[in-house]
Write a structure and sequence with these properties.
Blueprint lengths: L1 E3 L2 E3 L4 H29 L5 H16 L8 H8 L10 H32 L14 H13 L21 H11 L11 H8 L2 H13 L5 H11 L11 E3 L11 H20 L7 E2 L3 E2 L11 E4 L6 E4 L5 E6 L2 E6 L1 E2 L2 E2 L2 H12 L31 E3 L13 E2 L12 H16 L16 E3 L2 H19 L1 E8 L4 H6 L4 H15 L7 E3 L34 H7 L3 H23 L5 H14 L4 H6 L6 E5 L21 E3 L7 E7 L5 E8 L7 H19 L7
Parallel strand pairs: 16-17, 17-19
Antiparallel strand pairs: 1-2, 3-18, 4-5, 6-7, 8-9, 9-13, 10-11, 12-14, 15-20, 19-20
Helix pairs in contact: 2-4, 3-4, 4-5, 8-18, 10-11, 10-12, 15-17, 15-20
Protein name: Carnitine O-palmitoyltransferase 1, muscle isoform
Function: Catalyzes the transfer of the acyl group of long-chain fatty acid-CoA conjugates onto carnitine, an essential step for the mitochondrial uptake of long-chain fatty acids and their subsequent beta-oxidation in the mitochondrion.
Family: Belongs to the carnitine/choline acetyltransferase family.
């Protein structure tokens, strides 16, 4: 509208009103869906159907003159007001009393079943039973869990039924730490220096244990996120963030804009299912649910840097994506009203961006470097940016305009991202669509971002830090083809333990000085040098240990230990040792979380512990992680062997260490991602990758299982 001397000139746009109307409808739909899902989550493992069954059963028994309420229905009737309103007739009063009693009985049943399910999920004995030797107790337990889990759980249905983390005893953790940091001399005994530091915790042990039982362990997850992640001031790149790779063996499309359209469309469809909680929760062995809390922040989450700590900001909805191309940032809308744009519509918008010839404005090209360097670079790091974004009509009335936008900050994503990406890539392969190549549209008008000189200086400084960090990283990725999970199973051992032993063996062969290795599920696992002396046949000198393959070929090992059966026995003991520690970590009895909790409590109490300070400052020279994958459940890898994603990886934790991520992708292949730093003269990613490959082959030769050609 415009105000003139003659009055107010008010004009209505039907298109604008239509978009406002559709946006309002879409907003209310989301609210109603959230309310419905909140109710269904709140009554799980109950359901509206079970409530109706209880009401009908109670009503039927009442008409048959059978009082299953033991007088409670009559008691409720006496408390209802008489003679007015809807309670005037006896039939209405009876129906209302039955409904009130049935609802109360149903809610009591829901609470009882929920607590029973939580109690059942606290049982971890099934993890420690050998494959194929399940006890009768565990079988009965599994049947009860299945009965109480319901038929169609939503993504967050089990959140209120999951048990809290247990509180390990300090003595048990210290005992595991002693085995964890054994000296790599092969003698199987911790040195005197380590023992003295362990004893340094004894005077404060009882006090710390009382405090952790009181309140600390309940907050350990929040503490871990706050102190380990958000309060870290080092750059996220390499040190914290991880990367994910595309399909490496197959090319989906030759048109870049078409791939972008299909990928973005599939991602938004996945987010749509995530918002509606239509994704099934991850279930171990199809029985035990895993926590789904991390899925809430997979999309629309920003990590904003600050002086002392970062802040996580989560938006309930987002209707655009930020696109970076040749130093320019674009804001690309995903919806037209309430309708998600089709892949072809998105392709046209991406093509406009690809064809835009305008150069980046001063400070725009390296703008993302603001969050790639240190988390706080002084007062200028929070520099304000002003954007002049001109309006432009949609091309041919289809889809939105492309506008400039400031980028947000990246958040540390959980490895659950891998699962979502696998589903997105699978959706692209099955239902992707694109326009014929050569479709060109008019370019968007250039925007004018205003970046001050002070801000440009901060951007350049942060960019130089990030560039030096990135240039220092050596990355070696390879696909191991001689065998995969299929052959490892013939060795009668866990695939994860098999690979972990190979990593330890390779680490020893390169002469690594590392003292411990962390792996999997964020809980650190001990290295395999901690086998006791009695586990080594032939004495305590360690000459026959499997890990003394270091620097020798397999034939040399046979010369030292002619009994192959002894080596196989050692291997299985090492694998079982790894599996046992893995199970302890999975059940909340791991080491590093508990040590961290004790450290925070000691700081709160003002108690100095040389033991905790020393053990938490140990270098992580070999950091490993298995990437979980679900892609082989979506298609037959034997029929489509090239449709495998390679997972992702991360940077080395220590400057003189290695970061190793691996994905056991089916029966016949394993992907490895090995990282190190060029600045360290002791590490070489490609050399270590070759040692990993040879270690896997040597261990397979130990069992004389035929392999495919490498």
């Amino acid at each position: 509208f415009t105000v003139t001397p003659e009055g107010v000139d008010f004009r209505l746009s039907r298109e604008a009103l239509k978009h406002i109307y559709l946006s309002g409808i879409n907003s209310w739909k989301r609210r109603l869906i959230r309310i419905k899902n909140g109710i269904l989550r709140g009554v799980y493992p109950g359901s509206p159907t079970s409530w109706l069954v209880v009401v009908m059963t109670t009503l039927g028994s009442s008409y048959c003159n059978v009082d299953i309420s033991m007088g409670l229905i009559c008691f409720i009737q006496r408390w209802l007001p008489e003679g007015c309103g809807p309670y005037r007739t006896p039939q209405t009063r009876t129906l209302l009393s039955v409904a009130v009693f049935s609802t109360g009985a149903w809610m009591v049943g829901v609470l009882f079943f929920r607590q029973t399910l939580k109690l059942l999920l606290s049982y971890h004995g099934w993890m420690f039973e050998m494959h194929g030797q399940t006890s009768h107790f565990t079988k009965v337990w599994a049947m009860c869990v299945r009965l109480l889990s319901g038929r169609r759980p939503m993504l967050y249905s089990f959140q209120t039924s999951l048990p809290k983390l247990p509180v390990p005893s300090v003595s048990a953790t210290i005992h595991r730490v002693r085995a964890w940091v054994r000296h790599p001399s092969g003698q199987g005994r911790p040195d005197s220096e380590d023992l003295s530091k362990h004893k340094g915790l004894s005077p404060t042990k009882s006090r710390l244990e009382r405090e952790q039982w009181g309140w600390a362990w309940k907050k350990v997850s929040d503490w871990w996120e706050e102190y380990v992640y958000l309060k870290g001031r080092t750059p996220l790149m390499v040190n914290s963030n991880y990367y994910v790779m595309d399909l490496v063996l197959v090319k989906n499309a030759d048109v870049q804009a078409a791939r972008l359209g299909n990928i973005v469309h599939a991602m938004i469809k996945y987010r749509h299912k995530l918002d509606r909680e239509e994704i099934k929760p991850v279930m171990v062995l199809g029985i035990v649910p895993m926590c789904s809390y991390q899925m809430e922040r997979m999309f629309n989450t920003t990590r904003i840097p600050g002086k002392d700590t970062d802040v996580l900001q989560h938006l309930t909805d987002s209707r655009h994506v930020a696109v970076y191309h040749k130093g320019r940032f674009f804001k690309l809308w995903l919806y037209e009203g309430s309708r998600l744009l089709r892949p072809r519509d998105l392709e046209m918008q991406f093509q406009r961006i690809l064809d835009d010839p305008s150069p980046p404005q001063p400070g725009e090209e390296k703008l993302a470097a603001l969050t790639a360097g240190g988390r706080y670079s002084g007062p200028g790091s929070g520099a304000r940016l002003q954007w002049d974004i001109p309006e432009q009509p949609h091309p041919q009335g289809k889809g939105p305009e492309c506008l400039m936008v400031q980028t947000g900050y990246r958040e540390n994503r959980d490895p659950r991202t891998i699962s979502g990406l696998e589903k997105v890539m699978r959706c692209e392969l099955v239902s992707g669509e694109h326009l014929p190549p050569g479709v060109l549209l008019e370019s968007p008008a250039p925007a004018d971002p205003s970046v001050s000189r002070q801000c440009q200086a901060v951007i350049e400084s942060s960019y130089q830090v990030a560039k030096a960090l990135a240039d220092d990283v050596e990355l070696y990725c390879f696909q191991f083809l001689p065998f995969g999970k299929g052959l490892i199973k013939k060795c009668r051992t866990s695939p994860d333990a098999f690979v972990q032993i190979a990593l330890q063996l390779a680490h020893f062969r390169v002469g690594a000085p590392g003292r411990r290795a962390g792996g999997g599920q964020r809980q650190a696992l001990p290295d395999l040098r901690s086998l006791d002396d009695q586990d080594v046949p032939g004495g305590t000198d360690g000459d026959c240990t499997l890990l003394h393959l270091r620097g020798q070929g397999y034939s040399s090992l046979l010369h030292v230990c002619p009994q192959k059966a002894d080596l196989q026995d050692l291997f299985r003991k090492a694998a079982e040792k790894h599996q046992n520690m893995y199970r302890l970590a999975m059940t909340g009895a791991g080491i590093d979380r508990h040590l961290f909790c004790l450290y925070v409590v000691s700081k709160y109490l003002g108690v100095k512990s040389p033991f905790l300070a020393e053990v938490l400052s140990e270098p992580w020279r070999l950091s490993t992680s298995q990437t979980a994958q679900f892609q082989i459940r979506m298609f037959d890898p034997n029929q489509y062997p090239n449709h495998l994603g390679a997972g992702g990886g991360f940077g080395p934790v220590a400057n003189d260490g290695y970061g190793v991520s691996y994905m056991i992708a089916g029966e016949n292949t394993i992907f490895f991602h090995v990282s190190s730093k060029f600045s360290s003269s002791e590490t070489n990613a490609q050399r270590f990758g070759n040692h990993i490959r040879q270690a896997l082959l040597d261990i397979a030769d130990l069992f004389q299982v035929p392999k495919a050609d490498s």
